[in-house]
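Pinned message: reference record for Carbon-nitrogen hydrolase
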Amino acid sequence: MRASLIQIAVNQDETAEDRRVRAAALVREQSAADLVVLPELWTVGAFDFDSFAAGAEPLRGPAAKTVAAMSGAAREARVWLHAGSVIERADEPAAEPAGDPSGTPALYNTSLVFSPEGALVRTYRKIHRFGFDRGEATLLSAGTEPVTAVLPDTTLGLATCYDLRFPELFRALTEAGARTLVIPAGWPDRRAAHWSLLARARAVENQCYVLACGTAGTHAGVPQAGRSAVIDPWGETLAEASDAEEQVVMAEFDPAYADEVRADFPVLRDRVLR
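Predicted structure (tokens):
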């Protein structure tokens, strides 16, 4: 398989609609790839908390602008597209944080996976929300279920940014059949070393490929780490962004290698605590 990770820059002077148009054009340029990945919350900026409510979108209907743009781009390029994540405005009222007697719709950090025909085939609501007592943790509702997406040549395990710090989620994805873990992120530069370390750890401990796609630029004054990378099940980095500027990271990988590693070094079968 050929993967392209688009480490798109988020410039707060650029409108969300202009960035959608630009991102769609970047996806269409990757028609030689099998799988294209965008980062987390590239329409609003992962740390621009004040824009979350205004930038939220449904996943269906005429207001689903990102879904429409990414569906068209995937169809035109004939690629599988993990379109990063958006702030989803859900149909149901928020149950957390705290709920709202007025029935304000719940907001989620939701990842989107499109087929080469442009169909939205899987969505994943981020389970672990960053911020402790502010940001995502107070503004967004939490997803509840691990999600995989079955492609012709591999099964993707879906996770987002802060999820990377919780290995139990990745073990659940592995047990659900994942062989390739896709992790879009808006990871800050000050913790860039953690991003690279944890991405390799998730690859090694689960004997999976990891496609970790970060953002470039600055989100609400927070410089981004970049460092998008493709890592194989032995922990070797196949390709990595040279810096935190906007760029496309490309790599070819053999999905069957994950099973070969597991057969040659069957550490997963020796797991005792479950």
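Pinned by admin. Summary line: The two ends are 32 Å apart (CA to CA).
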